[in-house]
């Protein structure tokens, strides 16, 4: 990983969860229609890569091992374009449903697949559906993973993942010990899926289908506030190729990237940010202008 260039206005990390059909497999929705929605992710990836290449923007792709093996050409194209590839389970497994040995085996298999793809072991992880457990954190430490992007404990600052928190109903929280794993936090407010995707579940409806311009207005508000109030802040944004890859949404993404350029932020791969933080670079200094 290369180092980040210091920028007081801060950094935006674009990340893409290239789930493919594995997202629908996790939900046991494997009839042709939901599977085809996952297939569209492979259609969208080349479009996204062309868009990023036109602007010289680096990004991070979280790719399940199942997706790498199902779509080797598209996955290889991500690597060849100079983007980072990080862990996202093997078949988008929900960690809260797994035993420790099962989850350990998934880590091992996924790391092997990504190592073969990239020529180096992955350094980052995002839990499928954002669900970390203490067991998962222990496996991140065990496998030497440098950073995670599943938690929501801050917006513009990096921090260390804790392990062993206790939350008794009878008293205050007892926070566990920090690990060496760097957290690059995410948020559902900066995730395209919750704004745009229409999904009918057995007991609920995710309405989605909002105008992407409205979503990007929210995203811009978060970045603009960071630029004004936080020095060297980092804002992580989550996209899914099967969601953002439709024509009108890609056009809105292009316009948004141009808007961010006017704010003077830099774009960075998440692994580069994590490495800079681990090396002692101060990020997320708030307030930017002390009274």
Q: Can you walk me through this structure?
A:
The protein is α/β, with parallel strands linked by helices and 291 residues long. The chain has one domain: TIM Barrel. It is built from eleven helices and eleven strands. It has helices at 22-26, 32-55, 65-70, 72-80, 100-118, 134-142, 192-196, 212-229, 241-244, 247-263, 270-278; strands at residues 11-17, 60-62, 84-86, 124-125, 147-148, 159-163, 177-183, 199-200, 205-206, 234-239, 266-267. Strands 1, 2, 3, 10 and 11 form a five-stranded parallel sheet that branches. Helix 8 packs parallel to helix 10 (247-263). The chain starts with 10 loop residues before the first strand and ends in a 13-residue tail after the last helix. The mean pLDDT is 96.
CATH names the topology as: TIM Barrel
Helices and strands, in N-to-C order? Answer: EHHEHHEHEHEEEHEEHEHHEH
Number of domains: 1
Helix content: 40-55%
Task: Show the helix and strand layout.
Layout: E1 11-17, H1 22-26, H2 32-55, E2 60-62, H3 65-70, H4 72-80, E3 84-86, H5 100-118, E4 124-125, H6 134-142, E5 147-148, E6 159-163, E7 177-183, H7 192-196, E8 199-200, E9 205-206, H8 212-229, E10 234-239, H9 241-244, H10 247-263, E11 266-267, H11 270-278
Parallel strand pairs: 1-2, 1-10, 1-11, 2-3, 4-5, 5-7
Antiparallel strand pairs: 6-7, 8-9
């Amino acid at each position: 990983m290369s180092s980040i260039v210091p920028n007081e206005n801060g950094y935006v990390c674009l990340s893409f969860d290239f789930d493919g059909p594995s997202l629908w497999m996790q939900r046991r929705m494997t009839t042709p229609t939901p599977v085809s929605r996952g297939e569209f992710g492979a259609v969208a990836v080349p479009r996204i890569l062309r868009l990023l290449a036109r602007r010289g923007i680096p990004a991070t792709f979280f790719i399940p091992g199942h997706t790498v093996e199902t779509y080797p050409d598209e996955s290889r194209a991500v690597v060849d374009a100079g983007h980072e590839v990080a862990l996202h389970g093997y078949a988008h497994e929900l960690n809260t449903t797994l035993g420790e040995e099962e989850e350990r085996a998934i880590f091992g298999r996924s790391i092997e697949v990504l190592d073969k793809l990239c020529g180096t072991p992955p350094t980052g992880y995002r839990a499928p559906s954002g669900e970390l457990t203490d067991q998962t954190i222990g496996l991140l430490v065990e496998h030497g993973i440098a950073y995670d992007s599943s938690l929501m404990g801050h917006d513009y600052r990096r921090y260390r993942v804790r392990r062993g928190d206790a939350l008794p109903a009878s008293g205050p929280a007892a926070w566990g010990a920090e690990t060496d794993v760097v957290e690059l936090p995410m948020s559902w407010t900066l995730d395209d899926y919750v704004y745009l995707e229409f999904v009918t579940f057995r007991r609920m409806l995710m309405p989605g289908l909002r105008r992407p311009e409205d979503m990007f207005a929210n995203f811009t508000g978060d970045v603009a506030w960071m630029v004004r109030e936080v020095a060297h802040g980092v804002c992580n944004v989550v996209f899914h190729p099967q969601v953002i890859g439709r024509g009108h949404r890609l056009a809105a993404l292009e316009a948004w990237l141009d808007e961010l350029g006017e704010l003077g932020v830099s774009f960075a791969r998440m692994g580069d940010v994590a490495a800079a933080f681990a090396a002692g670079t101060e990020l997320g200094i708030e307030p930017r202008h002390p009274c």
